[in-house]
Amino acid sequence: MLPGSVLVKQAAAQPNTVLTFTTDGASYSLPLRVVNSAALAAQLGTSDFTITVSILVANSGTLNSTNQAIASQLGNATLAAPVIEFSVSAQAGTKSVQLNNFGSTYVKRTINVPAVLNSNNATAVVFDPASGKISFVPAIFVPKADGTTDVTIKRNSNSYYTVVKSSKTFADINGHWAKSSIDLLASKLIVSGTSNDTFSPSQSITRAEFAALITRSLGLATANGETTFKDVNPSAWYADAIRTAAEAGLISGYTDGSFNPGSPITRQEMASVLAKAIKYTGKTLNADPAVLAKFSDAASIPAWSQAAVAEIAAEGIIQGATDGSFAPQKLATRAEAVTMLEKTLKSLQFIN
Q: What range(s) does the SLH domain occupy (predicted)?
């Protein structure tokens, strides 16, 4: 428990201060810039408040619910770590406010797993008690000399976190050039197949599907509110993902207010979304014009997507076709989408 006034002074003097709280088997690193003292004072009615960081092992009910979610969503996956609730709250008298949305600041928390884990078939997950579902969260696995593994989770909100062992592949990707990428992101609960046993790597990917992939990849909590596009049915499976991606500024629609969720996404549209996603996390990208000039069809890349294509190409996330062209209007396949997402996540150090 820390006095708010002390944190405010420290944040003013050194805005990049990060306070790390450690317990047996877990830690939480709180950047002071996510503590909005003015907003908290307004909510609590006073600037004399305290901040509490809690790192608690989940109770038996939450543990059972997490195991049920793993069984129903993943089948053969197993829990590899305790389920831990990380929370931050501000208190003044009898009033309390949860700090649960850190914007684009990814806060680190670490769970020490008492086993050697292979990051190719293990993933950090968040459990949402409201929906009863688990989903991927960005995390880096670091093996320790004592035979344990530190799993450092990066996310811009709080909840229940754990690690699962999960391995997934599909019958139709044997020998495919993107097999290792597809296996990796499927095992990490980011991508799913067109059926339980097929991935359809050559099929084009829709704008709605890519919106879902990018929100999953960044570990974004579902945004509340109305769907802003006139052609996105609020009850459609992708409505939450599109609303969440739009609120984070990762996707945009067309001038007529539509999103065209079922339309296949083009390579230039995908580059634009990936560039926005990387910048959303706070990483800087550089649009090197020389990189753009290397594509034989650079002149045909529209002005609106040139910077994004240059940024993503300079980062090594997107490459040209074998003939040296970029092919901005070409439809992206499911396999291409997965390999670009994998490179994006590794560039952000969101996966090993």
A: 165-224, 225-288, 292-352
